[in-house]
Amino acid sequence: MFVTDLTRKGRNGLIFTDGPIWREHRRFALHVLRDFGMGKNLMQERVLDEVSILIDEIKMQIFEGKKEISVQDSIDLAIGSIINALLFGYGFSKNKKEEFYELKTHLKNFMRAVGYPLFRLCDRNPIMFKALPFIYGNVIQATDKLENFFMKELEAHEKEINFDADIEPTDYAEAFLKKRKELEAEGFKDHTFTNKQLYAVCLDLWIAGQETTSNTLAWLVMYLMLNPEIQKKVHAELDQVIGSDRFITLEDKIHLNYLNAVIAETQRFCNLVPMNLNQRLVKDVEIKGYRIPANTTILHLISTVLFKAVYRKKFRRGHSNFGGAYL
Ligand code: HEM
């Protein structure tokens, strides 16, 4: 789409690329995230740090006698901190909340500009674009704000990195910049580890990782509030398996069957990315007599899978609510 080239400063990033640049950077991203311990160690420590701050903050608000507490705001800040630690090596929760709110404002304006219905219409129609320059201007402005924000972070971060020391990187930007140095030292001039690619990956990981996780958890909290009987069962399982004097860690996962089911059911029921992402067919295919040529953009509607079983088996018996499929 035109919009993705505009906002990623060309065909950059992870989400809206394909071919060699996608393959190279997806592999690099998975490699870096695994090194940080995706699903274990460093990642778990970062998550638990934020969980601890989040619990303290909510407890403090209760202690201060607040009648209404926005759990969603606290979750949002915690997830933002974890993603930022992953990208730039530091979180926001302790003393950088203002920075988080600034980034959230830029992202909100960005999403609003690219989601604006007239802009969506213009996306496929260059003539309309020319006729309505203000729409184009809004997207450029929102994109520039985000790019400036990330580039400022990156410049400050680059100054702190010791490129000579043989130390494993602990955040994505550091790993990326070190890889660039390495390639340049080996004489590769036309590599893809450019500033534009780094900006676009930061944007992609921020949007893909922050909003999705934060909103899924916010839905989970709401479902538990609306379903006290399910909440009681989760509580009973946690009392039995964990007790109240320690954090839950990944090692506990296999013993928490009911909690796992509640999380799976949350992901099914909140149906967070109902149209998935667009994909390009790399070859002609035929499905049930329909021929779809190569290079067609396709959207696979994950909601048809998430709800189908429930519709078929249980819908008429009144099980279309949260908990209908698993609990
Ligand atoms: C509850 C949380 C999440 C949900 C519901 C979610 C959902 C999705 C979906 C539906 C896709 C499209 C898959 C496809 O095209 O077939 C996707 C892709 C992607 N997600 Fe997530 N995601 C979540 C968390 C994350 C996190 C935490 C990160 C990274 C920190 C992330 C990074 C990405 C990236 C980079 C892609 C593009 C992959 C590619 O095209 O190679 N996501 N996500």
TrEMBL record:
Organism this protein belongs to: Panagrolaimus superbus
Superkingdom of source: Eukaryota
Keyword Transmembrane helix: no
Similarity annotation: Belongs to the cytochrome P450 family.
Record-level Gene Ontology MF annotations: heme binding; iron ion binding; oxidoreductase activity, acting on paired donors, with incorporation or reduction of molecular oxygen, reduced flavin or flavoprotein as one donor, and incorporation of one atom of oxygen
Keywords for the protein's UniProt record, in alphabetical order: Iron, Metal-binding, Monooxygenase, Oxidoreductase
InterPro entries xrefs: Cyt_P450, Cyt_P450_E_grp-I, Cyt_P450_sf, Cytochrome_P450_fam2
GO terms classed as biological process: organic acid metabolic process; xenobiotic metabolic process
Pfam families the UniProt entry points to: p450
Protein name: Cytochrome P450
Cofactor annotation: heme
GO cellular component, one term: cytoplasm
SUPFAM superfamilies tied to this protein: Cytochrome P450 (SSF48264)
